[in-house]
């Protein structure tokens, strides 16, 4: 039985073949489902001023509405966007707001995101918190979307990952 002595010599080739096979068999990306389109109305910006990281401004949320296939509702006049503008031209959004669905469920929403460049599009990651049984799934939804300025505030398009 001389083959056990050959195994150490073949091991590097086995690892290369396994790595090539793994690279060729990349997993399928998760599915994406549209969640809602929101129009957020905002008030006048309050300039906090320059801090070491950039300039901070607070933009109050004063209302709005959202429409989607799983729920629709209004955005209450609770919340704001705490934004940070950097000297390099980036804008970091940290918005918190309150949704009341058409069936009177309350959902707290937090969107954080980044605008890169001058296209006005902010890419956001959103988390939801609610105690309502019909929307409990939102507490665990991985949601993301885009936010852009409109005449009265922001337009937000939101999706969530729904598996592979």
UniProtKB/TrEMBL annotation:
Keywords: Signal. The keyword Transit peptide does not apply. The keyword Signal applies. It comes from the Eukaryota. Residues 1-19 form the signal peptide. Pfam families: DUF3237. This is Dirigent protein. It comes from Cercophora newfieldiana.
